[in-house]
Specification:
With about 550 residues, the protein is α/β, with parallel strands linked by helices. It folds into three domains: about 250 residues, Rossmann fold (3-Layer(aba) Sandwich), CATH 3.40.50.10490; about 180 residues, Glucose-6-phosphate isomerase like protein, domain 1 (Rossmann fold, 3-Layer(aba) Sandwich), CATH 3.40.50; about 40 residues. It is built from 21 helices and 13 strands. The chain has a six-stranded mixed sheet, sandwiched between helices. The protein has a five-stranded parallel sheet with strand order 6-5-7-8-9, with helices on both faces. β8, α11 and β9 form a beta-alpha-beta unit. The relative contact order is 0.14. The structure holds 6-O-phosphono-beta-D-fructofuranose. The site of 6-O-phosphono-beta-D-fructofuranose has 14 residues, from loops.
């Protein structure tokens, strides 16, 4: 298989789309009173209602056939076996090994990696406990109270998202900060009220070469030494998380204070590796282990559940249906939980860096759409901002609503109101309001068209009992595997990210041109040359 569009199931879906594209959810529900319960699935503590999707049983049958013809389960098994499915980098893709239980066997090049995973987890836990208990002292003898993670992309978004998500479980006398942007404002604002003597920096970078992270780490070291005035302080105030031991040592961090991981962990899949050290310090090793257990629950669900009950499979295939047949360009992810405020941003990297590709595994240009644009905000804020367009605009935007039956902050009546909005929004999006209904409300003929809701706007609703570390792990793994399913159908490599390289290389060339004393000879296009000259002339 090279292009999925050539497969019988794809072609059958195309013909089927022409037949069902105008079918309304109102009619699908009217024809099947049990639809709301029938089109649901449950796994790893998550309940998925996918009944409000524009699908019939035939659509689902054809989507499962597409999964079969594109070899999704074989590709999944190859990933789980440690085969080098990241072909452009010659690497295995084994984030699932990061949450494998102690006794499991997962081999890379004939070697079981699970013992190393648990060895690092053990070192992380010992270190986290030392910080949390105050046993680890800074250079002046004071305990650490502030933890600043310096990293970007996968070395930032996972920890920051999960820290926000699990704040309820955090040790509240510790202050966590996350510095990512090369804009000096990020570091300056996040450190301005911190006492250097009580601050620990965790430099998190898989490669330990990333410009933003290395620049921030260098400035953080200068900030620390300006206050503590002794190079020896670095050892008590800096630790590293990386796969690059040599670069860590060169930076001046003691290898004993480095927590490693492996090239078979992609940056955007690395939260549950040592990249999660800041999170583990915040919430403690036990909660971190619970998070890993949740990831593993979903891995097992993905590995064993039949397609029609398999959450990542269902969400992945439904996404293909809208992306490739309805031409929907984006997906909105709408968590109805303030703790999940960073979840859409996290998913942007996970999904868009993974599936933002335009050649197949064989290097041929695709002639179909691949990864969607992911966006969203926590409810109910989005309702007062962009939902108007989702309800009445001209674009089809499938939405994922995420909610919890129990709140972590019982403050009547907030939670019932919050969840009422989840159910109301998905009901309104699916069923809308007809012209007849609007007229029946006594609205004038002139205004009536403005008050019509077409409906037929598809949504998934994900419900869990409570936002626990375990549920968060399952939720993240659900999206990881959803992305996998879609990449497998599109026959692309979801595990490289060459698309970020060109900009990095050009920035590396332009930075010295901005910094040069004498007017540099510029060899860019006329636009870039003019912008560089204007910047140099006006930067002060
Ligand atoms: O954005 C590109 C990228 O390589 C991401 O995939 C990665 O998460 C991020 O940069 C940070 O890389 P590193 O952890 O090596 O600093």
């Amino acid at each position: 298989m090279s292009r999925p569009t050539e497969l019988p199931a794809w072609q059958a879906l195309q013909a089927h789309y022409d037949e069902v594209k105008d079918t309304h959810l109102r009619d699908l529900f009217a024809a099947d009173p049990g639809r709301g319960e029938r089109l649901s699935a449950e796994g790893a503590g998550l309940y998925l209602d996918y009944s409000k999707h524009r699908v019939t049983d035939e659509t689902l049958r054809l989507l499962f056939e597409l999964a079969q013809e594109t070899g999704v389960t074989e590709k999944r098994d190859a990933m789980l076996r440690g085969e080098k499915i990241n072909v452009t980098e010659g690497r295995a893709v084994l984030h699932t090994a990061l949450r494998a239980p102690r006794g499991a066997v997962v081999e890379v090049d004939g070697q079981n990696v699970v013992p190393e995973v648990h060895e690092v987890l053990g070192r992380m836990a010992a270190f986290a406990d030392q910080i949390r208990s105050g046993e680890w002292r800074g250079h002046t003898g004071k305990p650490i109270k502030n933890i600043v993670n310096i990293g970007i992309g996968g070395s930032d978004l996972g920890p920051v998202m999960a820290y926000e998500a699990l704040q309820h479980y955090a040790q509240r006398d510790l202050t966590l900060r996350f510095v990512s942007n090369v804009d000096g404002t990020d570091l300056v604002e996040k450190t301005r009220d911190l006492d250097p003597a009580q601050t620990l920096f965790i430099v998190s970078s898989k490669t330990f070469t990333t410009q933003e992270t290395m620049t921030n780490a260098g400035s953080a070291r200068a900030w620390l030494l300006a206050a503590l005035k002794d190079d020896a302080a670095v050892a008590r105030h800096f630790v590293a998380v990386s796969t690059n031991a040599a670069a860590v040592q060169k930076f001046g961090i003691d290898p004993a204070h480095m927590f490693g991981f492996w090239d078979w962990v992609g940056g955007r899949y690395s939260l549950d590796s040592a990249i999660g050290l800041s999170l583990m310090i915040a919430v403690g090793p036990e909660h971190f282990r619970e998070l890993l257990a949740g990831f593993h629950d979903m891995d097992e669900h993905f590995r064993t559940a039949p397609p029609e009950k398999n959450l990542p499979m269902l969400m992945g295939l439904l996404g293909v249906w809208y992306n490739n047949f309805f031409g929907a360009a984006s997906v909105a992810v709408l968590p109805y939980d303030q703790y999940l405020a960073f979840f859409p941003a996290y998913l942007q990297q996970l999904d868009m860096e993974s599936n933002g590709k335009s050649v197949t595994l064989a290097g041929e240009r695709v002639n179909y759409q691949t990864g969607p644009i992911i966006w969203g905000q926590p409810g109910t804020n989005g309702q007062h901002a962009f939902y108007q367009l989702i309800h009445q605009g001209t674009k089809l935007i499938p939405c994922d609503f995420i909610g919890f039956c129990q709140t972590l902050n019982p403050l009547p009546p907030h939670h019932d109101l919050l969840m009422a909005n989840v159910f109301a929004q998905t009901e309104a999006l699916a069923f809308g309001k007809t012209l007849e209904q609007v007229r029946a409300d006594g609205v004038s003929e002139e205004i009536a068209p403005h008050r019509v809701f077409e409906g037929n706007r598809p949504t998934s609703t994900l419900l869990a009992d409570r936002l626990t570390p375990r549920v968060l792990g399952a939720l993240i793994a659900l999206y990881e595997h959803k992305v996998f399913v879609q990449g497998a159908v599109w026959n692309i490599n979801s595990f490289d990210q060459w698309g970020v390289e060109l900009g990095k290389v050009l920035a590396g060339q332009i930075a010295p041109e901005l910094q040069a004393g004498a007017e540099p000879e510029l060899r860019h296009d006329s636009s870039t040359n003019a912008l560089i000259r204007r910047y140099r002339a006006r930067r002060g």
